[in-house]
Every structure is written in structure tokens, then in C-alpha cells.
Design a protein that fits this description.
Immunoglobulin-like, globular, Rossmann fold, alpha/beta, about 25% helix, 2 domains, single chain
């Protein structure tokens, strides 16, 4: 525990050492300056429930559901003009709060509200949205458990699509009185919401939802788009899907995830939007790498999913994360990249064994007073102990400091709101040379600047993945290399800034 607390303190110290306040990277407004509009309807569609409408009727039951959103607005600044927008999706296991044996599951969850405020205070308009819930986690039939959860995630993607079109319609039809820039859209998922944001970012064809993994034992597809509509929520059968706000494109430009997982790694292809991911390494609910998702509180298995580690690894290999990789060098980056295996965009959350959400907090006394059976309350409290054993606000806020502090600058760079963070770029020219050319087992760095020592280096392959790092603190240096043949980029930190040069290993 002492080691963990020291590492958190180091991150906090590193962050405090950054003095300049940059819009979209740092908080430039206070809580009091953020205007919140609550419970704004943005969509109407059919929710699939199991036993909630009529407990005596088995199987799925349909209800037309009005989906709501809370909006967080920073003060309007005429010198800034239109503001980028962040769509935030809460957690909850695709089930209502408490029914999911958890105190989370709505847009007013403690951590969700705090995440929204932190982005609004950086200058973003934030839309915190509900989405349709409902699946059958306790069915003895694995096909039913798997098909109902993938359909729930699919409907979440449709709802997110509708939310994006709602904003675009508002901009067109209402004269954009909220000053939203729809060319700069970020997605943010937390827990279950991450399944939706990551799927939205990665599903680029209907065929990807029809892979073998998401077919029933008899070979039939689990997500029937002729009934439910396409992934954007368009089409489908009457009484099963409403097409909300047709006529607008459905797109986004960067997606960040806090916890959660992706339905399948095969969904990640080249040319997709960047992913950024913070994930508890010992998350008991969603795998950090790739593993089986189980029903909370049971031994029932649902489906194999891909967590933050493998998702960022794949997205980096495809070149999707290049928009931000190597462009953020701040205190959070230095602290976190010491243990993420060189994968810029991945924040492995350490600190508590088997904790899925150490950034969440709860009032257990309030939960104990709920008008629910004693067994249900004990089950909820048991779930809390798996999510955040200490469940205190102060500690949770420390985690949020570092999680949002790591994610926010990468969102800003990906959206083109800033060029880089914490980097003073210098033209190395003839002041710095690398040799021999091509390199083999070793590489010399010759620094001819009189008053600038080389502090550290970072080598990346052409996919943007960090393959070598070293602190130098010297004028010149020699590196022992063990790299595959290919082209590489060396980023060098000097006293007076950062520069880069390409080199070849043969």
C-alpha cells in the first residue's frame, strides 16, 4: 500500500508542477462557472426488458423508452467560438442501478458527474447520456446470455449514434445557439459505457457484428439488423427500432475508455479513430487484456472480450493512435509510461487488488437504508467491495486526477485543438547526428550543442509504438540496440526542448 500511495503522490506532484493553463488540456473554469441542463430528451426507442414489465410473462418484453441527457456547458467565450463536444456514457452492466447489484448505472453516478465536470471545466460541451438497458444475465442458456448482452451493447451504439445526430440537428435547426463544433467530437465511456464507445469507434461494417462468436449454436446471427436496424440505428422493423434524427452523418474523432472492454479485437482495423484507455489491471469484471466476461455475483460466463491493454496494442499496430502518440510529454505521461510497456494511450491503473473502479465512490449508509430486501443490499455492498474496497471520495478523486489528466491532453491533440502538450519542439538540424547509418547493434548520438545536454530518448517504430527508452543526462551517448530491421524515429529530450530524427536498423 505504501508503494502505491507514493506512486500516486508522484503523479500528483508531477501534475502540480505544470503551471501553464491551456484550454482543453487544463481546467480553465471553476465548478461554479459550469451550467448544467438536466434530463433533456434526445431519443425515443424500444428497450428490451426481461420480466420487468410483467413478471408472469417469460422472455423479452418491449417498452418505448425516452432517453435523457444532462448537458454541461462552460461559459461562452466569443473569442473561442464553437466548442468541441464530449459524449459520456455511464457504467452499469446494461441493467438498472441496484438491479445490477451495484450502486452505479445512471448518468448521475458520482464518477460520471465528476468526469463530465472535468471536461466542461477544460472548455468542452459535455453530453452525459442514458442508453437502453436490458439483457438476461442469469439465463441457463449461454446463447441467451451472450445474444442479449451483445444486443444490449449494439443498442447502446445505436443510441450513441442518435445522440450525435441529435446534436447535429440542434446545430442546424436551432442556429447552434450552444456553439458546438460538430467537427470535433470525442466519446468517453466508463465501465459498461466503454463497451459502447469502443464498439462505436471500431465497428465499421455490419459484417463485424456477425462473426462466429456472435452466432447462436444453430448458426443464426445474434444481432438481426433487419429487425433492429443497422449499427447507426437506421432501418429495422416497426415496433423494434425507431430511426431518430435521420439525414445526418454519424461520426466521431477520438474515443477514450475508463474500464470496460471491446466485444472483439477483430473489430479494430486501420483507418479508425484513435483509442485511449485507462483500465484497472486486476479488474474482476472486465479483462485488462483478453478474457471471459462473467455475470457479476455468479459463475456464469458470457463472452470473451478485449480489454484496454490488447485494444490499445492492436489500435497502435494499425496506426490509429498516431494523432496523439509522441505528442504529449507531461508529468502524468512520465509517471504512467514507466509501466505501460511503451504503449502511449494505455493507462494501467494499479493500486487495489481486484478493484474495477477505484475512481468511483459511494455512501454505504444510504445504500443500507434502501427499501430493498436485506439479501439484495448485502449483494450490492459485496459488489462495492469488488469495485472500490475503500469507496472513499478523497481517494477516488486522486485516481480521477490522474486518469483524466492522462486522457484529456490526448483527446485535445487528437481533435487538433492543440498541436502538442509539454513539448517545445526544436529543429535539430546539424546540431545532432546519429550513426552509423544504417545502424546495427549500436547507435551513437552526437550532440554538438554547446549548452544543451541530452536528457532522455524514446525510440518508436513506424506504428508509433515505443520500443526503447533511456534516461541519458549527458552530452553524447552510445545505445546498445536489439531492434528488428526497419525504420525508427528517435525522440530526444534536451535542456531546451524536444527534437526527433529517423534512422534505419539493418
Amino acid at each position: 500500500m505504501k508503494k502505491i500511495l507514493l506512486s500516486l503522490s508522484a503523479i500528483a506532484f508531477a501534475a502540480c508542477s505544470l503551471n501553464a493553463q491551456t484550454r482543453y488540456v487544463d481546467e480553465v473554469y471553476s465548478d461554479e462557472e459550469i451550467d448544467i441542463a438536466m434530463n433533456i430528451p434526445y431519443s425515443e426507442n424500444y428497450t428490451v426488458l426481461y420480466g420487468d414489465i410483467d413478471p408472469t410473462t417469460p422472455g423479452p418484453q418491449f417498452k418505448l423508452d425516452t432517453l435523457l441527457a444532462d448537458f454541461y456547458y462552460p461559459p461562452y467565450d466569443a473569442t473561442v467560438g464553437e466548442r468541441p463536444i464530449v459524449f459520456v456514457l455511464h457504467s452499469g452492466s446494461f441493467l438498472p442501478r441496484y438491479i445490477n447489484n451495484s450502486p452505479v448505472g445512471y448518468k448521475d453516478d458520482s464518477a460520471t458527474v465528476e468526469i463530465c465536470k472535468r471536461f466542461a471545466k477544460r472548455g468542452y460541451v459535455v453530453m452525459s447520456m442514458t442508453y437502453r438497458m436490458g439483457w438476461n444475465p442469469t439465463s441457463p442458456d449461454e446463447d441467451i446470455r451472450r445474444s442479449t448482452i451483445i444486443n444490449a451493447a449494439y443498442k447502446g451504439v445505436q443510441d450513441l449514434s442518435a445522440a450525435i445526430r441529435f446534436i447535429k440537428d440542434e446545430v442546424v435547426m436551432l442556429g447552434n445557439f450552444n456553439a458546438i463544433d460538430t467537427t470535433k467530437i470525442a466519446l468517453g465511456g466508463q465501465g459498461t459505457g466503454s463497451y459502447i464507445s469502443a464498439a462505436f469507434a471500431s465497428l465499421n461494417s455490419q459484417d463485424e457484428i456477425k462473426i462466429d462468436k456472435f452466432r447462436n449454436t444453430d448458426g443464426s446471427i445474434m444481432v438481426n439488423d433487419t429487425i433492429w436496424g443497422n449499427r447507426f440505428g437506421e432501418g429495422g422493423a416497426p415496433g423494434f427500432n425507431n430511426t431518430n434524427w435521420p439525414g445526418y452523418t454519424t461520426n466521431a474523432h477520438v474515443s477514450f475508455q475508463i474500464g470496460g472492454a471491446l466485444g472483439d479485437s477483430s473489430w479494430i482495423d486501420g483507418g479508425e479513430i484513435p483509442l485511449i484507455w485507462a483500465h484497472s489491471v486486476l479488474d474482476p469484471f472486465a479483462p485488462y487484456k483478453t478474457g471471459i466476461v462473467s455475470v457479476p455475483g455468479t459463475t456464469l460466463q458470457v463472452v470473451e472480450a478485449t480489454g484496454g491493454y490488447d485494444a490499445i496494442k492492436s489500435s497502435t499496430a494499425q496506426g490509429n493512435n498516431k494523432p496523439y502518440q509522441g505528442k504529449v510529454m507531461d508529468g502524468y505521461t512520465t509517471a504512467i509510461h514507466a509501466y505501460n510497456e511503451g504503449m502511449d494511450g494505455l493507462y494501467p491503473i494499479h493500486g487495489m487488488a481486484n478493484a474495477s473502479g477505484p475512481y468511483e465512490w459511494y455512501d454505504t449508509n444510504t445504500i443500507k437504508m434502501l427499501p430493498l430486501p436485506a439479501a439484495t443490499i448485502q449483494s450490492i455492498l459485496g459488489g462495492i467491495r469488488l469495485s472500490n474496497p475503500l469507496h472513499g471520495k478523497a481517494r477516488a478523486m486522486t485516481y480521477l486526477d490522474s486518469v483524466v489528466g492522462y486522457i484529456a491532453p490526448r483527446v485535445a491533440v487528437s481533435l487538433g485543438l492543440v498541436d502538442a502538450v509539454g513539448i517545445n519542439k526544436v529543429n535539430l538540424g546539424s546540431n545532432v547526428a546519429l550513426g552509423p547509418v544504417p545502424a546495427k547493434d549500436e547507435l551513437f548520438i552526437y550532440n554538438n550543442w554547446d549548452n544543451s545536454d541530452l536528457e532522455s530518448i524514446e525510440i518508436r517504430n513506424l506504428n508509433g509504438q515505443v520500443v526503447y527508452t533511456q534516461n541519458i543526462h549527458a552530452k553524447h551517448t552510445k545505445l546498445a540496440l536489439n531492434l528488428p530491421t526497419g525504420m525508427y524515429v528517435m525522440h530526444m529530450q534536451f535542456n531546451n526542448g524536444v527534437g526527433s530524427k529517423k534512422f534505419v536498423v539493418q
